[in-house]
Specification:
By secondary structure, the chain is of the alpha+beta class. Helix content is 25%, strand content 21%.
């Protein structure tokens, strides 16, 4: 059995306006309906108690102590390592161009001519899941790629949060893990424009953290 140690990253959802509180109330009701343990609608005072570095203009929010954030890169690499230790053969650069059903198996053909056979296939192709689904005669749909923004933040900044903070508008701010701050600005076509920014500028621009 492979064990992955993951620090608990407990999120809070911050609202800076009353209309945002109404949106967060819907998240709260969904959480209650889904049986989320300990979920809590918070007053301004409670939010500042949980996260003192929040903008003092915060009007309320949501606290989910049983929630958490998973670091996907470490998690995926751990799964790969575990699979290899248990005899799984990893094939990379295997671009699927077609799949043929033969008896109770699939014959899967790659662009470079390699072939494999499998009784069961799990479509976990990410942005290419639509292509794989079509190749296997499954549901037809189109994935339109989008890229968001990631901020690597300074641990020593005065505005360092102690929790993962979600503004109502989307996006999040996490505990700093890097010495400098960079932003990756994504556009509809997936292109990137990397720009160095100061952490406090980001926080104040977003409006939900206060130095």
């Amino acid at each position: 059995m492979y064990r992955l140690e993951l620090p608990r990253q407990i999120p809070v959802f911050a609202a800076l306006h009353e209309d945002e509180v109404r949106v967060i109330e819907q998240l709260y009701l969904q959480g209650v309906e889904n049986g989320v343990i300990g979920i809590e609608m918070c007053s301004r005072e409670r939010m500042l108690e949980l996260e003192p570095k929040l903008n003092p203009e915060v009007v309320g929010g949501l606290y989910a102590p049983s929630g958490g954030i998973l670091e996907p890169y470490r998690f995926v690499f751990s799964l790969v390592e575990s699979a290899e230790k248990n005899g799984v053969e990893i094939k990379t650069q295997f671009e699927v161009i077609s799949a043929v059903r033969e008896g109770d198996c699939w014959r899967i053909i790659a662009a470079d001519g390699r072939e494999i056979e499998a009784r069961f296939v799990v479509n976990s192709a990410g942005l290419y899941a639509d292509t794989i689904s079509a190749a296997f005669g499954g549901e037809r749909f189109e994935i339109v790629p989008r890229k968001g923004e990631y901020y690597l933040l300074d641990r020593t900044t005065k505005a360092k949060p102690s929790r993962v903070i979600f503004p109502r508008q989307g996006g999040f701010c996490n505990e700093p893990r890097a010495a400098r701050a960079y932003t990756a600005h994504g556009s509809h076509d997936g292109s990137f424009d990397f720009r160095e920014r100061c952490y406090y500028q980001f926080c104040r621009a977003q409006g939900f953290l206060w130095q």
